[in-house]
Each structure stands twice: as structure tokens, then as C-alpha cells.
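User: C-alpha cells for this complex, please. No commentary.
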Amino acid sequence: MTRSHTIAILPGDGIGPEVISCALEVLDAAETRYNFTTTRTEYAAGANHYLETGELFAEVQGQLRGADAILFGSMGDPRVTPGILERGFILEMRQRFQQAANVRPVRLYPGVPTPIAGLTPERCELVIVRENTEGAYVGQGSTVHAGTPNAVAMQESLNTRAGIERVVDFSFRLALGRRKKLTLCHKTNILVAAGQLWQEVVADVAKRYPEVETDYVHVDAMCFHLPLTPERFDVVVTDNLFGDIITDLGAVIQGGLGVATSANLNLDGTAPSMFEAIHGSAPDIAGKGWANPSGAILSLALMLGHLGEGEAAQAIEAATVEVLGSLPALAGADMGATTAELGTRIANIVRSGRA
Amino acid sequence: MTRSHTIAILPGDGIGPEVISCALEVLDAAETRYNFTTTRTEYAAGANHYLETGELFAEVQGQLRGADAILFGSMGDPRVTPGILERGFILEMRQRFQQAANVRPVRLYPGVPTPIAGLTPERCELVIVRENTEGAYVGQGSTVHAGTPNAVAMQESLNTRAGIERVVDFSFRLALGRRKKLTLCHKTNILVAAGQLWQEVVADVAKRYPEVETDYVHVDAMCFHLPLTPERFDVVVTDNLFGDIITDLGAVIQGGLGVATSANLNLDGTAPSMFEAIHGSAPDIAGKGWANPSGAILSLALMLGHLGEGEAAQAIEAATVEVLGSLPALAGADMGATTAELGTRIANIVRSGRA
Ligand SMILES: CC(C)[C@H](C(=O)O)[C@@H](O)C(=O)O
Ligand SMILES: CC(C)[C@H](C(=O)O)[C@@H](O)C(=O)O
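Assistant:
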């Protein structure tokens, strides 16, 4: 019997549809080669859809819930007030679908140029796990005496034992299957209450994983450890806001946002997980064929791995890395091929079974 | 009549005393050459003093208040619980002395190796101004149901119109004397209340500085703009926590914590400003002569500029840059000279008036 998966596709805005169309071509190739099928449904979501209909996540939530996984392009458009799509769609999905862990591999692939002098692929193979539902992302804050000289804005960060524990436990399990090292990244000397809770949970959960070594690094210090000594890290677990910041730094190290990818994992099976490249919608280059589809294709690989298609996932990753390593530039007019051509090139390698 | 300044010296812990002693040798040279005098008083502060006496900032506050400026080494020791000295001394000084602006120049000096491939000194000449008294640094947060599965930790960030305005106004003035560009760094799409207040204040104050162009960058995006396109920035203003993070990234770009320096400026004349290198106390290399005194000596230069000794400040900076550019390594056993030797070398150049 052929394995089958139901996938929701959200191409979104800007370069999203271009890179997702490449990912789907690669998915076709993987299905042929690795003997599984997918039922795909595409959903309109993002800036255009919002401007036409006013619809955000709430309206599509019911339809998405039945999918085994969600493949996401990118969202954002200068015509929409900043924050609307981010909070109304992306954060709403993370919340409603309890996508508790935002997993971002930081790998320097062979042949991909890194801006960090002297960094080699062997030294850069880590995963950052970001808590994805709470912390400073819980609300919009509040302001008293707005518009007066006495205005005071309060922004709260809420951290629950349960929310931290599920992502910390996930991170330990991840580390167990890797180099067995977990680093907590926080700012415990200043954010005392939240910091203590994070440290407490890590210490408690560590007892269940005696083989995993634990370590701690302040978020400011992470800014030099991550680029200069990434070999120090295996799995890094951190809160929502710090994760937002340090994963972008991670992406820089591995050659840029175009290459980086992420999984927004639901850990309790109540809703689908979502997979997306880290790059934004890049409206300035949309439609030009200048976008690098690698981020989206690597997120497809993450998704297939998650769905149990490990062989296909590995083949897609290997094919992408092979093509990435051959490019004269990672994006733009000098990439040496269009977005679509790169998609086809990667799909062909996957189909050939050569990777 | 010779100009005279009263300076409080706080060598602190670890490598602090070593690098401060170099800075004082350079100060001697500058006084001779540039015809001013200082009255210096050294205060015991830091881990040893705390372990012996239990004293933190409160006990020395009265004595420090009369100084024209404070020269600070570094603080921290593994024997003291993390957070005690940071909150009890460093943050307490920033608060009590209303050192509202933490100013951190990010300059790549010629000859200093940067880990960022292809970065050149002309492209890296910016200043980060960090709000230094509020935001997420206001308190310790609070926890309900601590120690139970229902524990929730709340961490608040308080942002006042007055607190933001003074540091934003300072940043505009700074930009006016430079390349006339001010960039706000925040996360306005998520931290809505605080973000709006910051944006509002920048927009309002901008009206008083029509020649200064303003720009905005999210803190996560800053992680790639800062290393990859630092030429985009002239003055960057940001909140306390984001400033803590991105200034460490700035230090990496300019060659490491050993080179970076900072001013904690009191802007209303009610208390002295404080000047310090960005590096920590590095207890692992203390006493070995492996510490690079440049950060401390450059903070002396910042201090002298602040006290109106512009010529001396420039000479010290130039001498430090000259010596920095000649080192085989920026710190450690391979630095090619001891901490003290480097101090003497820089002092000699300053005394000779050659720089
Ligand atoms: C778009 C935005 C809401 C989002 C975030 O802040 O989490 C993005 O920066 C990310 O990292 O996925
Ligand atoms: C020591 C610590 C309290 C401090 C901070 O967080 O502000 C340090 O990291 C800094 O940047 O000066």
C-alpha cells in the first residue's frame, strides 16, 4: 500500500508562490521516486487575500486543521500595516495549532559561502529550538496616559511551566538523537523570574535525560559564541523573543536567509505542524526569478521527515545542498539560474535517485 | 590655568585592575602632553569587596557622586551568584546616576581583524545608543505558583515617554554631528505598546531635527544588517534589552569584546557618567598579562572627550588604533606583548605626541 499524506499549501505573498511552486515540483519527483502520494490543497492566504476579503487565520483555521502538515511560503506586503498579518495569521496559527516548538537548523552546507571568516561546515551543525507560543509574544501590552508626556507603555512576557517544559523536553529528546548537548540561552541575570523558571525546568527535565550534557549562555554572549564558536552548540533552546533574534543570526552564519528553514511543530498531535523558509516575501524581487528556492525546498524536506518520509527528506536535502554549492551567488540576478530552473534542477536530481 | 578633573577609578575584578592600570599610565602621558591634571580616587568595588564586606553600589554611591567621571574596569567572579553584582552594582549605578544613554561606538579600526568576510573599516563606523535605565531591566518580575506545575513567571518591560525621549533626543543630536542618519531598532510588530511609544517619540523628536534622516529596523533583521551592511547605519537607537544584545554583535564585528568600549552617560548633569570597556572580568586569564587593554584605554579616550579634553582623546584613540593594528592576535598568549607592555607602548606614543 502506498503511504499518503494530506498537505495544506499556503504560498502567500511576494516570492512565496515562486518558491513554493519549486518545492511542489520537487515533491512530485520525491513521490515518484520514494513511492508515496500526497493530497494537496492550496489556500489563499496573505496580503492579497486579506486586502480583498479581510480574512486572516480565523477563517481558514477549520480547513487547515485536517491536514497532516502545512507548507508555507511567505507573508507580507508593504500595502498592509506592519503587524496585521504577523499577528493575525502567523502568530495566530502558532497559538491556535499549539505549534510549541519552532525548530531552526543552523547548518553551513559545503560550498555555500558564509560571511564568517574561516568558518567550516564541520564546525557549524546545530539546531535552535525556540519556544513558539508565549514569552513576550503573548500580547500587545498596554499604555497609560498615551499621547501625553506621562505616557508609560508596559509590555509583559508570560512564561508558563507547561509551555516551557514541553519545548525543553522536546529539545532534550532532539539532543539525545544528536551530539547530546543542550544549551539554554536566556538572560537570567536580568530577567530573573522568567530566567529562574527556565533554569528550573531545564534542571528538572535534565534528570530524565542523564546522558545529555547541559550548558547555559546569556543571549548577549550568544551574539559572539554563535558566529565565532558554533561548534560549541548542538541543540540550543530559548524563549520566543530571544529565539526570534538569535535564529536570524544563525541564518546569517549559514549563508543567509535564503538558505535557512524552520519547522513550527505541534507536539501533542492536536493540530498540524507548519514548515517554512525563514526568508520574507521580498516584494522587491517578486516575479523576477531571482529568489533562491532552497529555503522552501529544505522546509519541504523537514516536512517530509516529520511525516515519516525520511528517505525522501534526505534525498531532497542532499540534492538541494548539491545545487546550492554550485551557485555563483545565493540570490539575485547573479544566481546563474532562475528560481524555476533551480527548482527543476533539484527535482531532477531527486527523481534520478542520484543524491 | 591648568584644567583639572576629578575622576573616580573602579578597577573591579579579574582583568579589570590590569587593564585599568594601563589606562592610568596612558592618562599620565596624556596629562603631561595635553596640559591638564586629574585628581583620581580609587574605590574598592566588585566581587572581592562584596565577599569581604557585603557592600554594593549603595555604600559607595555618595563618594562617587562628586566625581566628574567614573572609569570602570570590569566586574564579576564565579564565587558570586550571577545577578548580584550586575543588579546590585552596575544596574544600580545606571539607575541612581540616571545614566540614561549607553553609547557604544562600533568601529572597525584599520589593521584589526574582523570575523566578517570582506568588511572594511570605511563601511563600519556607527554608534549604537542603548536606553540604559528602563525597559525589561526595570525589575525582577514575579512568579505565581512557583515550584508547581502551574507556575507562571511574568516579566514586565516598562517604557516611559520621558525615558525614551531623553535618549532619542541625545541620539538625534549625536547624528547631527555625524552622517545625519538615525535608525530605530525595535520589534514594533510584536511588542506593540512599547513599539508604538518608541516610534511616536522618534517621529516627534525628528521634527526638531529636520536634517536628520530616520529609518527603522526590526531587532531580528538587525542581526543580518549589522554584520552584512553596517554602512547602512550612522546612529542606531534602541531599548535596553535589544541594546544589550545588538551591541555585543557590534563588538564581534569590530574585532571582539577586547576592542569595544562604552559610555554610560548621565544627560542631565545630576551625577557622573561612567566609562567602561565592554569585556567582562575574564577570571580565567586574570593575572596572566593576556588581556588586551585597548577596550579600557579607548574608554579612557571616551571619558576625556566627554570631559572636554578632545585633543587628548583623539591622540589616545589614534595611539591605541596604531598599536592594535600591529598585534598578531587580539588577546591571549599570542598577543605578542603583555597587557602592561601594550599599555606602556600606547602611553609612549601619546607622550611623544606622534599620534
Ligand atoms: C513575522 C514575525 C511575526 C516572525 C516572528 O517575529 O516570530 C518572524 O520574524 C519569524 O521569526 O518567524
Ligand atoms: C552585566 C550586565 C548586567 C550588563 C547588561 O546586561 O546590561 C552587560 O551585559 C552589559 O551589556 O553592560
